[in-house]
Amino acid sequence: MTTLASIRPHLAALATALAAATLSVPTIAAGPASVDYAALVEHHGAAVVHVSVREKLAKPDDGTASTTPPATQPSKAFGSGFIVSADGYILTNAHVVQHGTRIRVTLKDKRELAARIVGEDATTDVALLKVDAADLPAVRIGDPDRVRVGEPVAAIGSPFGFEHSVTAGIVSAKSRNVDDLLVPFIQTDAAINPGNSGGPLFNSAGEVIGINSRIWTRSGGFQGLSFAIPIDLAMRIADELRDGTPIERGHIGVRTQAVTTELARAFGLDRARGALLVAVDPDSPASRSGLAVGDIVLQAAGRPIESALDLQRAVGSQPLEAELLLDVLRDGEALEVSVTVASAKSAPSPSESISVSLNDRLTPLGVEVRRLSPQERQRRGLAEGLYVQSVSAMSPAVRADLKAGDLILQVGGRPVGDVTALREGLEAAGAAGGPVPVLTLRGEEHRFVALELD
After folding, report:
1. Which entry of 83, 136, 176, 393 is 20 to 30 Å from 49 by CA?
2. Model pTM?
3. pLDDT tens digits, residue range 35-92?
4. How remote is the C-alpha of 395 from its chain's centroid?
């Protein structure tokens, strides 16, 4: 017969186990409500300024005749900014001040100061202003690399002209691509509206981690999607603007495309990631380093490359003449390539367009192709290639998005200059199973397509 006394030791052991299990459950830190936003604003809000911009806009031409000269009407725009040095340097957005003829900033203590544009960079949407003042309160600069998705943030600015308004939220995502700018935007759900542009995004420690720059909206106002320029990128641009040095972005001489799920299978990748090289400029840093068409860049300087834009950003963020270490996948093998970053000014201009010559038909693929004449190859700067004359409906070619007028340059990594080479390339690549990577040229755009053979 089971008695309480007999099971008491087992109950004690069970209680101990439950207590240990309870203690081992990870705790979740308190959310944004635990941040002392009032203290943050009191300590750092004085470094935020209201930016007022006077613009001169020409009266639009309505097509009617007139004997009076065209009129201009002054227009007033506004935004936000923040002081980055006690001697009066201020960061804001380039789009806030780009048409300004007179700029004034208002401090939190209501002082109004004239400002001049030191410089602006439309590519990153960063502008640097200067006011003649001393001993100004300046922000503390944070490290965007240490920002975690989900951590609390606060924005201070002038939405719709309401100066020094404070909103709060969390970091929703990092490295967002917006408007194809070479900026890895920080996404936040902190309310950002027109007038917030150029203002700071603070972390919970009161450090600036970004410049509020953009919103995604269908209404013209805040809809939960706001984007900030990482402060390390903005400060690097500001330093170049302050020094008066031309802002030169690096290049390595490649053109890239995104890796789709189909292309990932064709190249033997576990998932869609990386930047696929579709062209390597002759006598470029990339060609001198041994990079080749068909290589997939998976990391740059130890950081993952998830998209073609990631590689552009990685290269563009490097100083000129810097050595950039790339992790590359080539024919299923991993290798490291070191490439020297050069000025984009030295990049060759794109090649020209094409014309005519012999044709043949490749029925299994569903295309009619012709060889390029020597003159066409010379004009294009191509060693070999086939011109697609037509594409059959419901064929593997049309499913791969091949179109009449495309040039086929490679199949499965093999150059093709005639139908025999094309057929042999398809057979060799198809023997391995799965889709076949085909390098094409459409207009001036090199790109790979994944060809699924029936």
Report:
1. 176
2. 0.63
3. 899 999 999 999 999 999 987 654 433 333 333 344 445 567 889 999 999 999 999 9
4. 35
Hey, do 250-346 and 359-451 end up sharing a CATH topology, with the first three levels equal? yes
Fold exhibited by the domain 250-346: Pdz3 Domain (2.30.42)
Domain 40-57+74-243 has CATH 2.40.10.120: yes
Question: What's the token pair of residue 189?
Answer: 């759900």
- Looking at the domain 359-451, which fold is it? Pdz3 Domain (2.30.42)
Active site residue 197: yes
The one catalytic residue in 197, 213, 226, 289 is 197
Q: How far is CA 233 from CA 191, 244, 276, in A?
A: 23, 17, 25
Q: Which residue out of 50, 52, 125, 284 is catalytically annotated? A: 125
The β-bridge partners of 338 are: 325
Q: So where are the chain's domains?
A: 40-57+74-243, 250-346, 359-451
The residue among 253, 251, 248 whose CA lies nearest residue 236 is: 248
Look up 95 and say whether it is catalytic: yes
Based on the residue annotation, tell me whether 125 is a catalytic residue of this protein: yes
Q: Cα separation of 372 and 225, whole Å?
A: 49
| 270-297 residue pLDDT tens | 999 999 998 888 889 999 999 998 999 9
**Annotated catalytic residue: which of 85, 87, 95, 232?**
95
